[in-house]
Amino acid sequence: MELITTYICKQFDIGIHSNMFGGRIMSLIDDAAGSYAAQLCDTPNVVTIKFDELVFKKPVKVGSILKIYGKVLRFGNTSLELYMEMRRHNVYTGLQEIVTHTNVKFVRIDEDGNAIPISELIKDRYALRLKQFGKGLLSSEARELLVLTEEVNA
């Protein structure tokens, strides 16, 4: 998983029970996921189309440092699904506790808001970089490049 952003909880993020608003947490995750999706797709033209369930596991208080991590679950033709996780970071111990996690789906769009395909090169570049998706999901050109890279590094 990649660290996408860090945020410190402020007084205006807090509700009547002295915890961060759930809607604010969702907004922070959406912002981070949207930025990550745009970065992965090489375009700012991505929109959120689906949020899975958010279960709040730990409260967030004023001054809490939050770290939002993400990873790609899958690429579709026009869509990208990310797993996002928010953690509460303890500056004294370095320990992190999961506050919440969810899957978020984005669609790449054109200037008129219509869904358009995500380039195979983008998908292949990501798969090559992480080597998590397996050779079977790569195009033939990317598989050849991966084999050459592995031979050179051997």
Task: Explain how this protein is built.
It is a single chain. The longest helix is centred in the first third of the chain and has 20 residues, at 22-41. Strand 4 (79-89) and strand 5 form a beta hairpin. The protein has 154 residues and is of the alpha+beta class. It is elongated, with a radius of gyration of 18 Å. It has helices at 22-41, 120-130, 140-153; strands at residues 2-8, 46-51, 65-75, 79-89, 96-108. A 5-stranded antiparallel sheet has the order 1-3-4-5-2, with helices on one face. It has 2 domains: 2-118, Hotdog Thioesterase (Thiol Ester Dehydrase, Chain A, Roll); 119-154, no CATH class. Residues 132-138 have low confidence and may be disordered.
Q: How many distinct domains?
A: 2
Helix content: 25-40%
Total of helices? 3
Specify the structural class: alpha+beta
What is the CATH architecture annotation of the largest domain? Answer: Roll
Strand order in space, largest sheet:
1-3-4-5-2
Major β-sheet profile: 5 strands, antiparallel
* Shape verdict: elongated
Mean pLDDT: 88
H/E series: EHEEEEHH
Give the CATH superfamily of the largest domain. Hotdog Thioesterase
Radius of gyration: 18 Å
How is this structure best summarized?
It contains three helices and five strands, in the order βαββββαα. It is of the alpha+beta class and 154 residues long.
Name its key features:
154 residues, 2 domains, 5 strands, 5-stranded antiparallel β-sheet, 31% strand, alpha+beta, 3 helices, single chain, elongated, Thiol Ester Dehydrase, Chain A
Topology:
Blueprint: E1 2-8, H1 22-41, E2 46-51, E3 65-75, E4 79-89, E5 96-108, H2 120-130, H3 140-153
Antiparallel strand pairs: 1-3, 2-5, 3-4, 4-5
